[in-house]
What does this fold into?
Amino acid sequence: MADKQLWQQRLKTAVSRSLSVRTFAAFNTNIDSVVHLTPDNIARAIAMSGIRPDEIPERTCEQLPNAISTPQEFLMIIKTQLAAGKSCYTVVEGDLLQWINAVFTDAKQSMGGQAGIIANQLAALGATSIAYTRLLTPLQAQMFDERVLVPTAENDTLDLIPVREAARPDDHVKVNWIFEYAKGVQFQFGEQTVTTPRANRVIAATRPKGAIMAFDPAFDTLLADLGECCDTAFMAGYHYATPTDNGGRDFASYLAYTKHSLRELRRNNPSLLIHYEYVPVKYESLEAELLRGIGEVSNSFGINENEIKRALRTLEHGELADTIDRDEQAFTLYQGGLTLLHELQVERVHVHNLGYYVIVLRKPYGISMDEAVGASLYASAVNAMKAKYGNFPGVDLLPEAGEMMLSDIGFAQVDLFAEHVKDSGRQLAEGIWEFVDHYALVVPAHVVPNPISTVGMGDTISSSSYAMETEVAKVTAMTR
It folds into this structure.
């Protein structure tokens, strides 16, 4: 049986640590319009859609479209994900945005986009946080933590300035609609009642033309200098790739450019650690090549329990995706994570799920396994405080998380995983297993009932855990 006292002691040790690393986050930032779904606003949406509830198609999560343009498609996605308790990302096209604005008038705006969320969270935790985005309106800039820095390229010289001084009034703004729902809420679709099995969210995003997931050409000769300013880089937004127009590049040119730019970031700083945070690509036909290409130049890859099935199918591991779909647990997610580790050629895959994380690490690894567990527990503490209080929790709240019990879901998964691998792996410590060419970690995490927000939880977990791993690696290198 999992030793809960041991895990709580590990947690208390983890929350006593602090961050001083230099972090970089790019490319996607936007305004999040957050809506808490209720029976009343769903009823209003159905009424304003002009369709009958029995006209809402029945779909599985895997059958949902990557883009929607009608109220009927919107309600189909909402109904499907409410019933499954799953997250979902889709793109809003055509006149649907105006309809959403008219229906959900009580939305609250906040920082959105993986790069924006990561930059704010790491600044709140004490890191030197640098962010880059191609769209930076004054409203967007105000949503950044004032401590975040932005690179500029004036006269072929790199400079880092406070984000609010870098705003550009003529830029466009990107808006993501976040539809959050709580656990155990009953929604009525005509005569059919849907009860949510867990808290989660659906994201419906806009895509303005200026939202290019690439550096401005003015930075082409300065990327090596920028890389020297950072210890770890969190790269996201590549899911916006299209077959034709990626800021003037076709897909092949865009992927070649992306790989070159990441290599340039490392040119003067070979120890720079690069993390790639996954979001499904709208054009699924591009995804396998994109994943493998960016994986070649990345160290770490972050993904959740739902997204991993899409990634595995894209990479032609459909049977394993089906296995996870039928029997989602730490062991099947480990199998998926190990497959991604080999396919993408990265050294770390972090799968985050409700109540526990599964981390697969290629041997040899840069820090000890005890320290890697501690980094994930640190991330759980940060995420728990985000779930409880919202916004971007700082170090002052982490001791509270250190007193909160980790989830029984996670403890059960530690025990179950141990049974699955008792004949194939060597257990080094509780939650830590060694195999021929890799390590596997199963780490219990907090579960906060009825969280204030679920937006950015995966980004928060991935970034705070890997930033802490980088902190440990940096300190270790300095003491050698």
Observations:
- The chain has two domains: 4-30+111-168+209-479, 32-110+173-205.
- The chain is about 40% helix and 20% strand.
- The radius of gyration is 21 Å.
